[in-house]
User: What shape does this take?
Amino acid sequence: MPSFDTSVLWTSLLWTAIAFVAGSIPFSVLLGKFALGKDIRAYGDGNPGGTNVARAGGKVWGGIAILLDGIKAAIPVWIAFRMAGIDGMWIVPVALAPTLGHAYSPFLGFRGGKAIASTAGVWLGLITWEGPVALAIFLLLGYYLINGDGWSALGMMTGFGLYLLIRNSLFIWTYPLFAPTEASFFVIWLGQVLLLAWKHRYDLRQWPRLRSA
Assistant: This one.
């Protein structure tokens, strides 16, 4: 645990606020309104996310919404981590803020999406391309094997947690001085697991079933 440093504390709080506001921007709703002339919350499950943008306007618009939801999380986390020098446990609130902002956007009356894309964006900011790629692989595997979006999301995070464990072991063995930062990744991962479980809590009331069953 890093020693108490007032300047680092205030810098971390500043970037936490910035990351929360950035994550709160409801790109899916804005795309639906200004590009499609539709309220995407009237489609599917009513979730203000990329899936319902795709339902309202097609896969291309859905992909754009997902990309924007990822980028809005990645940019503030990347700047805080790579440029402002916030690391160790100080990066935890910064990294959790975009997903919280997306899930509980003040621009939508503290309602929001299920935070899959913003979760991937956070890891893009922390460990670059490997985070979103690993998450996408585990998410697709979860959707292919499990019938239930909530359980697929938890399957994605379980697989990603194992990936981080292997990555962390190799990284610390090679670069032991970076151990505090690598350890903080597991705190971020746990926070995201809890948030995704809460946002998918209604799906998780049903026991998971294999799609082949």
